[in-house]
Amino acid sequence: MKLLISGILIAAIVIGFTSCKTKSYLPTNYPKRQLIFGGGGGFSGVESAYFLLENGQIFSQTGFDSTYVSLGKLKKKQVNPLFSKADTLSIDSLEMNAPGNMYYYLAYQMPDSSVHKITWGDPAQHIPENIKDFRNELMQIISELKENNP
């Protein structure tokens, strides 16, 4: 009888832990907001893209490879201010498509899958400093993740 009760208790604990696991997504099937940022160009023309999902998952995609590589997951307290800042910057109302030899971009994907993307790099075009600063902040997060998870 004790063995039966112990078995039921262990099964309940295992079910409890497995049911609490959060679902993992890829950028292609994520149903909420995403920040997409990166850059490319130069001699090789290779583009690097990074995807920050609203649930904190971060992915990279490099060059002509369509594979998403997980870089880790940020905590909610790190993610929420980034999406709030993106809202404050009104990325969806900016019109900028001025790539140069080297280019940088920032895109905001909404739950309805609409994407607003701004691209810059042409030295003759002006990009607001707060946009550049925000992309640099996101790239700093990527650097730290890569440094901590080589």
Outline the fold blueprint:
Blueprint: H1 2-19, E1 34-41, E2 47-53, E3 57-62, E4 69-73, H2 76-89, E5 97-98, E6 102-109, E7 115-120, H3 129-148
Helix pairs in contact: 2-3
Describe what you observe in this structure.
Strands 4-3-2-1-6-7-5 form a 7-stranded mixed sheet, with helices on one face. Helix 2 (76-89) packs antiparallel against helix 3 (129-148). It has 150 residues and is of the alpha+beta class. A hairpin with a 5-residue loop joins strand 1 (34-41) and strand 2. It has a single domain (25-148), classed as Mago nashi protein. 17% of the residues are buried. The model has no long low-confidence stretch (mean pLDDT 86). The chain has 3 helices and 7 strands; from the N terminus they run H-E-E-E-E-H-E-E-E-H.
User: Helix content range of the residues, please?
Assistant: 25-40%
Q: Could you give the order of the helices and strands?
A: HEEEEHEEEH
Could you tell me the CATH topology label. Mago nashi protein
* CATH architecture term: 2-Layer Sandwich
Structural class: alpha+beta
Spatially, the strands of the biggest sheet line up as 4-3-2-1-6-7-5
User: Any low-confidence stretches, pLDDT <50, length ≥5?
Assistant: none
Number of discrete helical segments: 3
**Whole-angstrom Rg:** 20 Å
Assigned CATH class: Alpha Beta
3D shape: globular
